[in-house]
Design brief:
single chain, 11 strands, 3-stranded antiparallel sheet, 4-stranded antiparallel sheet, 39% strand, disordered N terminus
Length: 146
């Protein structure tokens, strides 16, 4: 019935990142969602006015692309606490040596961009999103090109 917190939050400064892990013995195995929001106190830990970074939720299935054909690629859905976070700056590293794509997301939560992989292979794609408060979230995935 106890709770375990790993990480020292008291020593953080604005802009620092922390990996917070909590263990809640429930008696049942499975995955449980835990949500933290600014100005929330959980088990005595006050998150103050710090803005949590955007979270990019990848599509459940990544489609395989064809080499040499430009395609509109769904990169994910943005999940972010609070309101008034836009505009959000998106930066996509495609992993194939071509220049990054950078664009503004505005008020939509769907992240998509067009890209043309010229060669077959597996590429590590990095998607970063920065909101107007400077909070940055990112994710990576492998794009298969045939």
């Amino acid at each position: 019935m106890g709770r375990t917190y790993l990480g020292e939050l008291a020593s953080l400064s604005p802009g620092d990142f922390a990996d917070i892990q909590a263990v809640y013995p429930t008696g049942k195995s499975g995955a449980y969602a835990v949500s933290l929001a600014p100005r929330t106190t959980i088990a005595g830990l006050n998150f103050g006015t710090h803005k949590l970074p955007p979270v990019i939720v990848l599509p459940a299935v990544q489609r395989t692309l064809s080499a040499g054909q430009a395609a509109l690629i769904t990169l994910g859905t943005l999940s972010e606490s609070g309101t008034g976070n836009d505009p959000r700056a998106v930066d996509v590293t495609w992993g194939d040596g071509q220049p990054n794509d950078a664009f503004s997301l505005g008020t939509t939560n769907q992240i998509a961009a067009t890209h043309n992989y010229t060669k077959k292979g597996s590429y590590t794609v990095v998607v970063k999103v920065r909101d107007r408060f400077g909070s940055t979230g990112f994710t990576t995935y492998t794009q298969v090109v045939q």
